[in-house]
Amino acid sequence: MNVISPRMPKMQTAVRRTAIYGLLDPETKEIRYVGRTEGSLRRCRERILAAAADGGATRLHCWCRRVTHKGLEPDIILLQVLPGGSDLTEAEAYWIHYWRGLGARLYN
Predict the structure, then answer these.
(1) Percent of the chain with pLDDT over 90
(2) Predicted TM-score (pTM) of this structure
(3) How far is residue 48's CA from residue 26's CA, in Å, rounded to a whole number?
(4) Which CATH fold would you assign to the domain 17-101?
């Protein structure tokens, strides 16, 4: 049993971080999607695999299915980490614009 002494300062709770990530084609290494998460990239990966399995009709869903049917998974890269409460919409839009400006064929 853990006991906290009244004289001991409580440990700070983990600061919730948000992140902007990219999905790469595992074969070509091209960035194909820019997304945001308020959880871990592990949870992000789980959602991607679920999206591939759920039969959705978006271009992202179809691409995820094609990749996973080959026995592969999209690679995830971390583009930016922001403190909790940051404007994810603005940051995500920046990265989408950035990659499209470089000619990336995004599924966003």
Answers:
(1) 47
(2) 0.79
(3) 14
(4) GIY-YIG endonuclease (3.40.1440)
